[in-house]
Amino acid sequence: MNTLVKTFAAAALIAVSTFAMAADKPTSKSEKANLNLSTADFAFEHYVAITTEGESVGVEQLFAEDFNQKIQASNAQNHSRSEVVKSLKKQKGEKLNCAVSTDIIEESADYMVAKVTLKFENFTKTDLITLERVGNDWKVSKSINSYK
To answer: What's this model's pTM, rounded to 2 decimal places?
Structure first.
């Protein structure tokens, strides 16, 4: 009788562990990351890391659904959220060879306007971004780039 109880206990333990492993679905690295976008400063710092240091975690979380990017150049361009996210994912791990400076131009309880200046050897890129509070998180809603 004692052997029968041990056998059933072992079978139950194997069944429970099998179900537990099957229920634990694999997740991608970006899904595992718990990105803190609770303040405008955190979101702004993460934007700078994504655009200049090749950070890829939380790219989708950072941008608002209606995000758009405008590039002021000899041929002006507009890019949608999906285009920018796709481009930034391709740049994963690539750190830009430039001096980075940041300035907060305006900040309130629900929005922030900030400037990121990237000084390369032969030109300077200025990125004006707008961040907005969306629920409990901050999201980048607009980006305007110009080059000198």
So the answer is: 0.72
Of 110, 104, 99, 114, whose CA–CA distance to 144 is shortest? Answer: 114
Residues belonging to the chain: 148
Q: For the residues of 43-77, what is the DSSP string, one character each?
A: HHHHHHHHHHH---TTHHHHEEEEEEEEEESSS-E
> How far, in Å, CA of 117 to CA of 133, rounded?
23
Cα torsion 27, 28, 32, 35 to 10°: value is -150
How far is C-alpha 126 from the chain's CA centre?
20
Strand bridging mode 137-147 / 63-72? parallel
Residues 128 and 117: beta-carbon distance below 8 Å: no
Q: pLDDT 10s digit of each residue in the chain, 148 long? A: 555 444 444 444 454 444 444 444 444 444 445 677 888 888 899 899 988 888 888 888 888 899 999 998 778 888 888 888 888 888 888 888 999 999 999 999 999 999 999 999 999 999 999 999 988 889 999 999 999 8
